[in-house]
């Protein structure tokens, strides 16, 4: 009879962990990350809010830019953009030409986390900016005023590949793409990659793909596993090891206008976003 030990099974990527980040002695300049997917309903805003909150919990100063006319990131942090006179739209197209970026920043109820809100006005920006000089670089100029004050700026993009998204990609250092583990969510990723490559070639040579994040994972279904396997096969080392599982706690925390790290701090969803924050820092995407 053989006495050799059985071979160790490989550790599933989502079970890997990352070290606790060290405190920072000083803050800034920020690394700017565009949270981007032209398909809606893939957990993009949920990830933008909760990754921002998890980074803030680890002592990083974070600015979340709501760049979606739906204003979901603003509402999710307790700011009703529809009641505001000044938002990201005001900075993009006016008419408040005397505004500074700092004038539009809101301090949220989460320590170290600030917000530039949005509302439906932003939907008009693409048409209004069409004849502007360097229209693709307006957001980059806006963020340049404050990026030295933060460790991370996270832009929650709208679900399209229009001028606003191009602005976000032109301003960003990196792109994170949340992808729901559903078949139809896979179809648009190739188109988004083409857009990222075009922006890198023509407008922003520093832009890189930070990674693909599997979201809304339902480990009970074979379909979810198959889609995740296809993502890993297609993107390999560009997949984040952390995955985000489907849970009712995410919509519940949105209704409560709190990040899940505060609404349900011990829930596995909160722990997943803390793990994602540690992974982002371990990979050098945020200091």
UniProtKB/TrEMBL annotation:
Region span, Disordered? 1-25
Query: Where in this chain does the record put each AAA domain?
Result: 31-208
Pfam families per UniProt: AAA_31
This protein's source sits in the domain of life called Bacteria
Which segments show compositional bias classed as Basic and acidic residues? 13-25
What's its job? Answer: May play a role in septum formation.
Q: Which family does it belong to?
A: Belongs to the ParA family.
Q: What is this protein called?
A: ParA family protein
Name its species: Mobiluncus porci
């Amino acid at each position: 009879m053989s006495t050799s030990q059985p071979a160790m099974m490989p550790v599933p990527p989502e079970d890997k962990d990352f070290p606790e980040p060290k405190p920072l002695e000083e803050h800034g300049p920020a690394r700017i990350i565009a949270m981007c997917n032209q398909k809606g309903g893939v957990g993009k805003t949920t990830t933008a809010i909760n990754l921002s909150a998890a980074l803030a919990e680890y002592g990083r100063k974070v600015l979340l830019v709501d760049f979606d006319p739906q204003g979901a990131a603003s509402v999710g942090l307790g700011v009703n953009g529809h009641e505001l006179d000044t938002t990201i739209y005001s900075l993009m197209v006016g008419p408040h030409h005397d505004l500074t970026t700092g004038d539009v920043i809101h301090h949220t109820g989460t320590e170290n986390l600030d917000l530039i809100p949005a509302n439906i006005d932003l939907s008009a920006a693409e048409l209004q900016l069409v004849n502007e000089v360097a229209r693709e670089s307006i957001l980059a100029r806006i963020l340049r005023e404050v990026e030295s004050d933060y460790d991370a700026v996270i832009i929650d993009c709208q679900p399209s590949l229009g001028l606003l998204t191009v602005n976000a990609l032109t301003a960003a250092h990196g792109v994170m793409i949340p992808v729901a583990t559903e078949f139809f969510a896979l179809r648009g990723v190739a188109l988004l990659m083409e857009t990222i490559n075009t922006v890198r070639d023509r407008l922003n040579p520093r832009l890189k793909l930070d990674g693909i994040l599997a979201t809304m994972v339902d480990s009970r279904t074979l379909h979810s596993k198959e889609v995740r396997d296809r993502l890993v096969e297609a993107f390999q080392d560009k997949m984040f090891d952390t995955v985000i599982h489907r849970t009712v706690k995410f919509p519940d925390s949105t209704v409560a206008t709190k990040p899940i790290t505060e609404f349900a701090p011990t829930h596995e969803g909160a722990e997943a976003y803390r793990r994602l924050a540690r992974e982002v820092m371990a990979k050098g995407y945020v200091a």
